[in-house]
Every structure is written in C-alpha cells, then in structure tokens.
Write a structure and sequence with these properties.
Layout lengths: L1 H57 L6 H4 L1 H24 L2 E3 L6 E3 L13 H45 L1
Antiparallel strand pairs: 1-2
Length: about 170
C-alpha cells in the first residue's frame, strides 16, 4: 500500500513538472506567434511607407515625415515595443536574460556574459547588495559570538582557577 502511495505521489509530481513545462512551451509559442504577427504588420507598414514615398515622387512633391508618415511610424513604434516585451517574457520563461552588449541569451543569475565576458550590471548590483547584507549579518553574529566566547572563557577560567585551588 505504501509503495503504491509513493508511486502515485511520484507520478503526480512528474505530472506537475510536465504540466508546468508544457504551460511554459504553450506560453512561449503564443509569444512567438505574436512576435511573428507584429513582424508581418511592420513589413506591411514599411510597404505602405514606401508606396507613399513613391507616390510623392510621382507627383513631384516633397514628403514630410511628421505629417505624411506619422501614423505608420507610430504604429511601427508600438509593434516594435510589443515585440521587445514578448522577447523579454520569453527570456523570463526560460530563466534567461540577454547580454546588453552581444545580445546573447545567458543564464539569469550569471555575473558575466558567457559569450563576450561582459560584466552584467544587474547581477553586480544584486551581488553587492547581497554581500553588504551578508557582511552586516555576519558582523552582528560575529559580535554576539565573540561576546559569548568571552563570557564562556571567563566562566571556564574561573572554573579552572577554582579547580586548581581545590
Ligand atoms: Zn555578451
């Protein structure tokens, strides 16, 4: 009976891990789909911009980016920002981050880029804070321990004196 309980537990644990993994894969697939949709929308906008520019050329008119292409450019800005957000979410799903210099995917807790060796600011700040916290904590602990040791030494010293006297 115990064996089957253990087996059942193991199976459900494996199932949870698989479900989580599947969930992540589904989320990533959705994000990648969104990225692809945005990319093709951006391509269409580029075509529209090109068409507008050419039509201006045909009519021998000058093009004013601010008034003539504002709508298309703003749409591209929004779509590009969405792509950036999706890419960041995908990295988070995979527990990774991106090197700001070479843009390679690296482990989230890495202090240096495994590709170009760049020192990673985010990790450095966190580490510095952690080290500072550790130092502060260890100082407090060390003080307490030293005091304790001194007290114990005094006590044992007295005891040993007492022993020699007796
Ligand atoms: Zn790098």
């Amino acid at each position: 009976m115990d064996f089957f309980n253990k087996l059942g537990k193991k199976v459900s644990e494996t199932y949870d891990a698989t479900a989580e993994k599947t969930g992540k894969i589904t989320k990533e697939a959705k994000l990648r789909m969104k990225i692809n949709e945005n990319k093709s929308d951006i391509k269409e906008l580029y075509t529209e911009i090109g068409k507008k520019v050419y039509e201006k050329h045909v009519r021998e008119e000058n093009i004013d980016i601010n008034s003539d292409l504002e709508e298309e450019c703003t749409k591209i800005d929004v779509l590009s920002a969405e792509i950036e957000t999706c890419l960041k979410s995908i990295l988070e799903l995979k527990d990774k981050k991106q090197c700001p210099i070479c843009h390679k995917e690296i482990e989230k807790n890495a202090n240096f880029c495994s590709n170009c060796g760049e020192k990673l600011e985010g990790a450095k700040i966190t580490n510095a804070e952690e080290v500072k916290e550790e130092l502060e904590n260890s100082e407090v602990e060390a003080d307490n321990e030293t005091e304790k040791e001194i007290v114990e030494e005094e006590v044992s010293g007295e005891e040993s004196e007492d022993n020699t006297q007796e």
